[in-house]
UniProtKB/TrEMBL annotation:
<feature type="compositionally biased region" description="Polar residues">
    <location>
        <begin position="20"/>
        <end position="30"/>
    </location>
</feature>
<dbReference type="Pfam" id="PF11969">
    <property type="entry name" value="DcpS_C"/>
</dbReference>
<comment type="similarity">
    <text>Belongs to the HINT family.</text>
</comment>
<dbReference type="GO" id="GO:0016787">
    <property type="term" value="F:hydrolase activity"/>
</dbReference>
<keyword id="KW-0378">Hydrolase</keyword>
<dbReference type="InterPro" id="IPR036265">
    <property type="entry name" value="HIT-like_sf"/>
</dbReference>
<feature type="compositionally biased region" description="Basic and acidic residues">
    <location>
        <begin position="31"/>
        <end position="47"/>
    </location>
</feature>
<feature type="short sequence motif" description="Histidine triad motif">
    <location>
        <begin position="168"/>
        <end position="172"/>
    </location>
</feature>
<keyword id="KW-0547">Nucleotide-binding</keyword>
<feature type="domain" description="HIT">
    <location>
        <begin position="76"/>
        <end position="185"/>
    </location>
</feature>
<feature type="region of interest" description="Disordered">
    <location>
        <begin position="1"/>
        <end position="47"/>
    </location>
</feature>
<feature type="compositionally biased region" description="Basic and acidic residues">
    <location>
        <begin position="1"/>
        <end position="19"/>
    </location>
</feature>
<protein>
    <recommendedName>
        <fullName>Adenosine 5'-monophosphoramidase HINT3</fullName>
    </recommendedName>
</protein>
<dbReference type="InterPro" id="IPR011146">
    <property type="entry name" value="HIT-like"/>
</dbReference>
<dbReference type="GO" id="GO:0000166">
    <property type="term" value="F:nucleotide binding"/>
</dbReference>
Length: 215
């Protein structure tokens, strides 16, 4: 009888865990039910925003661009940006960006530079975002200098979709190089520097202009 009771308790606990499975980042935790409700309530608004936005200057195969209000069910970085008590350690704050510790560091030092405006990934950038990209790159270098870390020993760049783990644009600041694990994840073609992304944006704009002129 005792064995049966223990078995029943294990089954109930297993079902309860499956029902309330959670997604967490630091102290930010949401149940699977909350995630589904959040996606359902916000998803339509985000799709409408994406459809309304002009596609002209986007990189090839651009996905939706979300200018997203705070919603913990949708974006862990937005949670950090809008939380009054973020658990992620914030190293630097400006009106445009924050720099935080990566929660799963892949090197001795691993930080993320995150824009306050929600942009899904690099394929959603336009030429209007050029000042933001330049600012992110500049802030990353300034931060390393202020921390007395050698900029030349660090990789600074973005993961190309689908290799970005969070659907909110973030610039990796990781190093020194000889301490990086999974080095292939921080090299082209998976990893793109700020300069590479800027060059691609300009190239897309020029090619589309030439194409229209020929017609």
């Amino acid at each position: 009888m005792m064995m049966t009771g223990q078995k029943d308790r294990r089954e109930l606990e297993s079902k309860r865990e499956a029902k309330t499975s959670t997604f967490s980042y630091g102290s930010q935790t949401r149940s699977s039910e909350e995630l589904q409700m959040g996606e359902k309530s916000e998803g339509q608004k985000l799709r409408e925003t994406a459809l309304a936005k002009d596609q002209t200057d986007r990189l090839p195969m651009a996905d939706e661009m979300f200018f997203m209000p705070f919603s913990g069910a949708l974006c862990v970085f937005c949670d950090i940006l809008h939380s009054s008590k973020p658990k992620a350690r914030i190293r630097l704050e400006t009106p445009e960006i924050i720099i935080i510790d990566d929660h799963r560091p892949r090197a001795e030092f691993h930080f993320q530079c995150i824009p306050r405006r929600h942009i899904k990934n690099i394929t959603c950038l336009t030429l209007e975002d050029r000042p933001l990209l330049l600012d992110m790159g500049s802030r990353a270098r300034e931060f390393l200098d202020s921390a007395r870390l050698e900029v030349s020993e660090f990789e600074v760049g973005f993961h190309r979709p689908p290799y970005n783990s969070v659907r909110h644009l973030h610039l990796h600041i990781i190093g020194p190089r000889d301490t990086i694990t999974e080095k292939y994840m921080f090299r082209e073609p998976i990893f793109a520097s700020v300069e590479s992304v800027l060059t691609e944006l300009l190239s897309v704009k020029e090619n589309r202009f030439i194409s229209r002129r020929k017609k």
